[in-house]
Specification:
Elements: E1 5-11, H1 17-26, E2 31-35, H2 49-54, H3 56-75, H4 90-114, E3 118-121, E4 123-126, E5 131-135, E6 141-151, E7 155-157, E8 170-171, H5 173-176, E9 185-189, H6 193-204, E10 208-212, H7 224-236, E11 240-242, E12 246-253, E13 256-263, E14 266-272, E15 274-277, E16 281-283, E17 316-318, H8 329-343, E18 357-359, E19 364-369, H9 372-377, E20 382-388, H10 393-398, E21 404-410, E22 416-423, H11 426-438, H12 443-447, H13 458-467
Parallel strand pairs: 1-2, 1-6, 2-3, 6-17, 8-15, 9-10, 9-15, 10-11
Antiparallel strand pairs: 4-5, 5-6, 7-16, 12-13, 13-14, 18-19, 19-22, 20-21, 21-22
Helix pairs in contact: 1-8, 3-4, 3-6
The structure holds flavin-adenine dinucleotide (FAD) and nicotinamide-adenine-dinucleotide.
Flavin-adenine dinucleotide is lined by residues 11-17, 34-37, 49-51, 55-56, 59, 123-124, 152-155, 173, 194, 284, 287-288, 320-321, 327-330, 332.
């Protein structure tokens, strides 16, 4: 076989693609992974995709920096800690974020080396019979072939026709992760995950943040009780969240962004210094599919796949943000592992019912499985147990008492159907629900498991007891 033939070529080195490449290499395949991302300031191949370069990791780095600052300016006084004149040096904060990103870019490169995955830089196009051409950063084109190809090309932000990204005043996630100073007034279109997370970052650092959300309900995908608590807490923090706000026009004038919208009260307008547009993402397939490759797109522009991520074209698979399902890094990775294992003849599978969601705000929001409303809509009889963090000793000791845990269980079998949380460290606690659901556990199972005292996980234990109306530390 030629040097340019691989058992598997993965297009895209995000959490879907790079994980698939490593798993396939572990299974003995000769693997190449192609990616077109250049590192900030280096111009060299930066492995890790959206998640590592301009998504999950840099946003969490800034969330952590801004949380430290917010604690210093707003929370420490209650502990008797004071500091004179605290300041934020945005350049240092951004440099710390960039260093974390480049550290992990190098980490993925090292993992490729250790697993003998060939990293190829450039933009790849899939042709008939699994031929892949790559135009590298120097403009040189090389052709490769593979027995299998995984398309893991990810997603890009949706642009509103009247609010084109200019990278300066009207920005997407990339811009909002790289402001060189705290904007005095930040506008955000879309109160989804990115709007809330990045809105929180700049609010905690001192920006006036107004979030315009088109839907009348806040976080419509979350459990209604959890969304209500979260909205109350965000409003307390000073995030100005306007629901049912339909933006009609955006205009940049003299370094200011003028935003017009309509809501239940009529025509409204705000003026901000920066505008983040975070109204969802779409699959990225530009230049990926040659006409003869046979891979089809759905009406929404996603790569069409079956439940096993197969495109219908022999040996061609697609995973992650470019296909149906939630746009989450861990979903992309799980699909990558499942497809690599299927190619190797093993039974790979991803259960969409047990994929956790986390929003890394303060308080954090997390869930897995169905909400009570979804159960109702699907005619599934259910009962729910809740427990507030305000009654948890550890949460009170931490001074982080907002929020609760809610467990939804089948009314007849008691099987756990969902867990919904808002509060401190719930990004970690949600996995108790994921694990229980993966093992087909019941609320009774969780209720009978001994949880250490004093921990936040006692809220999960008590919520499980509350399903059967026998929580100990609240009136049932
Ligand atoms: P991507 O990570 O998008 O990677 C695709 C890669 O393919 C890119 O590097 C792209 O350059 C490359 N590529 C595309 N086409 C070609 C081509 N033709 N040739 C060569 N290379 C190509 N998810 C979470 O689970 N948790 C979070 O906390 C979280 N935070 C986020 C914060 C932000 C601000 C954003 C924007 C997203 C966040 N996400 C988060 C979502 C997460 O980033 C995505 O779900 C995830 O990156 C999808 O992985 P992927 O491998 O499918 O695609
Ligand atoms: P999103 O789908 O989470 O939220 C978009 C919001 O914008 C929705 O509430 C929608 O109703 C609203 N909207 C849409 N059009 C609008 C308009 N014209 N005017 C006002 N509001 C409008 O999308 P996102 O925040 O851009 O994030 C994209 C995806 O990235 C997420 O769905 C998620 O999959 C992923 N992500 C995940 C995390 C995480 O896991 N913590 C963090 C960031 C991003």
């Amino acid at each position: 076989m030629s040097e340019n033939h691989f058992d598997l070529i993965v297009i895209g080195a995000g959490p879907g693609g790079y994980v698939a490449a490593i798993r396939a290499a572990q299974l003995g395949m000769k693997v190449a992974c192609v990616d077109a991302t250049r590192g900030k300031g280096t111009g060299k191949l930066a492995l890790g995709g959206t998640c590592l370069n301009v998504g999950c990791i840099p946003s969490k780095a800034l969330l952590d920096s801004s949380r430290q600052f917010h604690n210093l300016t707003h929370m420490f006084a209650a502990h008797g800690i004071s500091a004179d004149n605290p300041k934020i040096d945005v350049a240092t904060m951004i440099a710390r974020k960039d260093k974390i990103v480049s550290q992990f870019n190098g980490g993925v490169a090292q993992l490729f080396k250790a697993n003998k995955v060939t990293a190829i830089h450039g933009h790849a196009t899939l042709h008939k019979d699994r031929k892949v051409t790559v135009k590298d950063f120097d403009g040189k084109q090389t052709a490769y072939t593979a027995t299998n190809v995984i398309l893991a090309s990810g997603s890009v932000p949706i642009e509103l026709p009247f609010a084109k990204f200019d990278g300066k005043h009207v920005v997407d996630n990339v811009g909002a992760l790289d402001f060189d100073a705290v904007p005095r007034r930040l506008g955000v279109i879309g109160a989804g995950v990115i709007g809330l997370e990045l809105g929180s970052v700049w609010k905690r650092l001192g920006a006036e943040v107004t979030i315009l959300e088109a839907l009348p309900d806040f976080l419509a995908a979350a459990d209604a009780d959890i969304a209500k608590i979260a909205l109350r807490e965000f409003k307390k923090q000073g995030l100005d969240i306007q629901l049912g706000a339909k933006v009609t026009a955006v205009e940049v004038r003299k370094k200011e962004v003028h935003v017009r919208y309509t809501d239940a009260k009529g025509e409204q307008a705000i003026v901000v210094d920066k505008l983040l547009v975070s109204v969802g993402r779409r699959a990225y397939t530009e230049g990926l599919l040659a006409e003869d490759c046979g891979v089809r797109l759905t009406e929404r522009g996603m790569i069409e796949v079956d439940e096993h991520c197969h495109t219908g074209v022999d040996g061609v698979w697609a995973i992650g943000d470019c296909v149906r399902g939630p746009m989450l890094a861990h979903k992309a990775s799980e699909e990558g592992i499942a497809v690599a294992e299927r190619i190797a003849g093993l039974p790979g599978h991803v259960d969409f019912n047990t994929i956790p969601w986390v929003i890394y705000t303060e308080p954090e929001i997390a869930w897995v499985g169905r909400t009570e409303k979804q159960c109702k809509d699907e005619g599934i009889p259910c009962r729910a147990g809740t427990f507030p963090f305000a009654a948890i000793g550890r949460a009170v000791a931490m001074n982080e008492t907002a929020g609760m845990v809610k467990i939804v269980a089948h009314a007849e079998t008691d099987r756990i159907l969902g867990m919904h949380l808002c509060g401190p460290n719930v990004s970690e606690l949600v996995h108790e629900g994921v694990l229980a659901m993966e093992f087909r556990g019941s609320a009774e199972d969780l209720a009978r498991i001994c949880h250490a005292h004093p921990t936040l996980s006692e809220a999960v234990h008590e919520a499980a007891l509350a399903v059967d109306k026998r929580a100990i530390h609240k009136a049932n």
